[in-house]
Amino acid sequence: DDLYIYNKESAGKLFLGTNNDTKVTIDSLGKVGIGTSTIPHGGIGRAKFAINGTNADAQGPHLQYTTDTDDYPVFQQLNWSHDNISLNFDSYFDGVWRSSDAGSNFQIYKNVDLFSIKYDSGINPGDGVSWNDGFVMDASGKVGIGETSPLGKLHVKSADSGAGADAGADELVIEGSGDSGLSILSGASNY
């Protein structure tokens, strides 16, 4: 009742394909390649499992997971191109960013030299998501919370003030359109 497929050559590979084209390769070390017969692809890096796909295309090397609950992805890894990679939680891209869960949607995204954590909520499954930036880090290490172009090492923004940060005092920037401030909370009353 079991089916075994072997290549008994010590350095041989096993190839599986369709339409007269190799789609999956298993090498003699047990490494698996989809879309590539060299694992890792091009011999660059380290991998037991390698996927190669079309750059900046729906046929790219993307991964998506679903459960028996419904057809909406619980997780999607979108490897669109260099400098455009996202990990999507209860959200997905099919030409438009969409929700998989009405409760919340999150995304970790590296795009255009920015690393960000994005969020949205209350969006019905299958409907479009309008991402909000929760955290953004630029290539120089500046971090923005509520700000995509941080003016200091840490820039916390609730609304646009229209003002710029002083270059001599930009380690921490707190910005709001009205009164802004910083609260330091302590459990001890002696401070």
In short:
The protein is mainly β. Helix content is 0%, strand content 42%. The protein contains no helices and 15 strands.
| Distinct helical segment count | 0
Total number of strands: 15
- Amount of helix: under 10%
What value does the Rg take, in angstroms?
A: 24 Å
Largest beta sheet, briefly?
9 strands, mixed
Shape: elongated
Query: Mean pLDDT, nearest integer?
Result: 95
- Unreliable spans are none
Key terms:
191 residues; mainly beta; 9-stranded mixed sheet; 42% strand
Write structural notes for this entry.
With 191 residues, this protein is an all-beta fold. It has strands at residues 14-18, 21-26, 32-34, 49-51, 63-67, 70-81, 84-89, 91-93, 97-99, 104-111, 114-121, 132-138, 143-145, 154-157, 172-175. The strands form 3 sheets. The protein has a 9-stranded mixed beta sheet with strand order 5-6-7-10-11-12-13-14-15, with no helix packed on it. It has a 4-stranded mixed beta sheet with strand order 1-2-3-4, with no helix packed on it. A hairpin with a 2-residue loop joins strand 5 and strand 6 (70-81). The protein is elongated and about 75 Å long.
